[in-house]
Design brief:
alpha/beta, three-stranded parallel β-sheet
């Protein structure tokens, strides 16, 4: 089974009579039986609307002769839809449906279409099962390719239905089924949430301590995405990350230049590290909301004067200023 949806942008009415409509219904049914949601569109405008609103598409089947309500596309309606797919998605598998009356029509297609499409479909020249199988396999490969490393491994582990004989103690949510209130809690969030609430004891998911396996792959992938040399995942949110940065940047009795409107996690980090904060006071508007620091307060001379006048400065060991 696969998750995701497929856009079928075809000029024929799948609910209409005739051989063509019946074949399309069978193809759509085959895709649904394989776990894909089918989104139908009969015009360029309808297909483009689906592309704008449906981020979960994993494949598209587009008729080259798809009609347009305006009739303004020089390449034909299918060309407008393909260009929208190129703008909206990266490497989404697209199958172009050719008309039976056009002598297969490949000679009419621009070169860029061949570079965009992964295949062509003549609905009446093959079985619905085979056509749906081609689309399904392309959709499944695309869905797997876009998943980041850790989420992909987590889904694979969930699909394996392994027992969880370690922390957390709710054992995949089963422990909540022993009481009425626990059952209500379980039903509210759903079983999948608890089955994927796992600890570092799951070897298949890697280690946060050793930065190995899917966790290590995910950290390296995140570093690539954000253009960083290294990137490490932190539990307990931004607050813990702020405290960790504070531990790294300053030590006991060093001066730290801090925005007075900083998050309390920064203050926690200063307390734990033993640094000496010198606060810069932000501006406030008429409603009392804190804003940015005044530009004049961040000039080197102004910062140096504030540090020199601060009561915590005498005895500080900072060879130079640390900022946060």
């Amino acid at each position: 089974m696969a998750n995701g949806s497929v856009l079928l942008a075809l000029r024929e009415d799948p609910l209409g009579r005739g051989v063509g409509g019946d074949q399309l219904r069978r193809i759509g049914k085959e895709l649904e039986n394989r776990g894909l949601e089918v989104r139908w569109a009969r015009t360029v405008e309808g297909a483009c609307a689906a592309l704008r609103t449906e981020a979960g598409l994993t494949a598209a089947v587009v008729a080259w002769d798809l009609p347009s309500e305006t009739g303004e596309d020089a390449d034909g309606g299918g060309g407008a839809v393909l260009r929208q797919i190129i703008r909206r998605f990266t490497a989404l598998p697209v199958f172009v449906v050719m008309s039976e009356e056009s002598d297969h029509g490949l000679d009419r297609l621009p070169l860029w279409v061949a570079e965009t499409a992964v295949g062509y479909i003549w609905p009446l020249e093959d079985t619905p099962s085979f056509i749906a199988g081609r689309v399904f396999n392309a959709a499944r490969a695309y869905g797997d390719s876009i998943l980041p490393p850790f989420f992909k491994a987590l889904r694979r582990f969930d699909d394996a239905h392994e027992y969880s004989w370690h922390t957390p103690a709710h054992s995949g949510g089963v422990a909540f089924l022993k009481s009425p209130v626990g059952r209500a809690f379980f039903d509210y969030y759903g079983e999948r949430l608890f089955r994927t609430d796992l600890s570092i004891s799951v070897e298949e998911l890697g280690s946060l301590f050793e930065h190995s396996g899917p966790i290590g792959d995910a950290e390296r992938n995140a570093a690539r995405v954000f253009g960083a040399d290294r990137r490490y995942f932190v539990l307990h949110g931004d607050s813990t990350a702020d405290r960790m940065v504070g531990h790294y940047c300053v030590t006991a009795d060093e001066i730290a230049l801090v925005d007075r409107n900083c998050h309390k996690s920064v203050l926690h980090g200063l307390v734990i590290s033993g640094a000496r904060p010198v606060y810069l006071v932000p501006t406030r508007n008429g409603y009392g909301l804190a804003g940015p620091l005044p530009a004049s307060e961040t000039l080197p001379a102004a910062v140096a004067a504030r540090i020199a006048a601060h009561p915590l400065t005498p005895g500080a060991v900072s060879p130079r200023l640390s900022t946060r």
